Amino acid sequence: MHAGLEKLFDKERICRARVNEELVLLSLQDIKKLRVFSGHLDWSLLDCVPYPKFVFTILREPTERILSMYFFLRESAKALSEEQINQPWYGGHKAALQWSCDDYFCSIAPGFRGFLNTQYDNVYTYYFAGRTFRGHHDISDQQARLKFSDDFIVELALKNMSALDAIYSINELSNLERDLSRIAGRSMNNSLAETKINIGESDPAKRFDTLRELGATQATFDKIEQMTRLDRQIWEKFCR
Predict the structure, then answer these.
(1) Best CA proximity match to 73, nearest among 203, 163, 198, 172
(2) Ramachandran category for residue 227: left, alpha or beta (phi over 0 → left; psi -120 to 50 → alpha)
(3) For residue 152, how many other CB atoms are within 10 A of its CB?
(4) Are 73 and 93 in contact (CB under 8 A)?
(5) Using one digit for the tens of pLDDT, what is the confidence trace for 143-168?
């Protein structure tokens, strides 16, 4: 997506911050000079953008998203040096490469469980319900205290998503390409569907087979099922 945006808009107007930790370092004066924001950003931070906005998101089938991320981390870890992989910020990469599938997905270690919750556990639902990547942490805490039901959290996510200008599926990007070309006043040389970064196996069934080859038991598949149970409602609402 970001590579596609760079083909449509002037690079100096595209925000270089791709994650929250980078975006919060920018001053409001810096932000006012920019016109395009793309990345894993808290939706709430985009409220600081002071001019009219076209805010959209792209969804991926939830199980496919989890499998894709897991195998991406495994492959990325193989390219890291021993010194790099032992750095704390590569903990997810290291675990994906070195732990068994069951130990990885079913971990109850508090620190690593937080990583799994943020990166894997019904990410769409908790993000859109809380408008932040801390959504799982913030909302699950309230869920325990205030007895929020899963249905309530899904409805909250859907309500917030109704404020977005557009929602697209990664399986059909032609509508997004059309809308962005209209906004930019120019067309892309290559379609978004052809602009692929970090290409890997795209068949979820084959990825499940690979998990089994790696020793995954039913515990792993049950955990993946649990970590997509709410997001599947989001997906079916907008993309089925």
Answers:
(1) 198
(2) alpha
(3) 14
(4) yes
(5) 767 778 899 999 999 999 999 999 99
